[in-house]
Write a structure and sequence with these properties.
nine-stranded mixed β-sheet; Aminopeptidase; alpha+beta; 215 residues; globular; 9 strands
């Protein structure tokens, strides 16, 4: 018989699954490979100008499976937190996102891409608000950043809506699939700014690896 105290113990994070009004944002599973492959194939022309990894597409399904195994492994080891974006019944991939660990240990970087059929619907803002909330309230980060190419107008609008500050535009820092280096915008939000930001008002539910609610 399991110890009752262990049953009541709540794991503080990371958030493996997040629900917003319209979406399920969750850790990738290798079984998602076919859904991911379809989403990337359908959105390839839309992705190519902004996502360097899209230049390697189309990709064999086994490569996709191994990639998602790697994503899941890194997630479980707290090395990086890469999520799939799904419709409510999780039958379709609507994009990808992440709380990336490439900054300092007390900071995260949010990245995102959206399926071409779902752009201009506010999904990137909804997703980024949810991940901002998770970063500060679950992972207890001090800072969250969003980086994007300066000419990616849609992407740059997201952090602005969520109360992030445009800190800098760094010249020729992002190599895109056109083979050229593009200027990169750095947007940041700090812990002491979070409560006053629109992101803090996001209505979400977040769950740990055991399916227990943590927000």
């Amino acid at each position: 018989m399991p110890d009752a105290s262990l049953i009541k113990t709540r794991v503080s994070g990371p958030a493996y699954r997040i629900h917003t009004h319209r979406l399920v944002i969750r850790c990738w599973d290798p079984a998602d490979a076919f859904l991911l492959q379809a989403a990337v194939h359908e959105s390839l022309d839309h992705l190519l100008p902004w996502m360097p990894w899209a230049s390697s597409e189309p990709e064999d399904i086994q490569v996709k499976i191994e990639r998602l195994r790697t994503f899941r492994g890194k997630f479980d080891l707290n090395q990086d937190f890469i999520y799939g974006i799904f419709n409510e019944d999780q039958t379709r991939v609507l994009g990808g996102t992440g709380l990336h660990t490439r900054l300092e240990s007390d900071a995260r970087e949010i990245g995102y891409w959206i399926h071409k059929d779902f752009i201009n619907q506010g999904l990137a803002t909804e997703i980024s608000a949810a991940l901002t909330k998770v970063a500060f309230e679950v992972s207890k980060m001090n800072r969250v950043e969003i980086h994007c190419a300066s000419d990616n107008v849609r992407s740059a609008a997201v952090p602005k809506k969520l109360g992030y500050t445009h800190e800098a535009t760094l010249p020729r820092r992002t190599l895109l699939s056109d083979g050229k280096y593009h200027d990169t915008m750095i947007w940041a939000l700090f812990r002491d700014e979070y409560e006053e930001s629109p992101a803090s008002k996001a209505e979400i539910q977040a769950f740990d690896c055991m399916g227990r609610q943590i927000i």
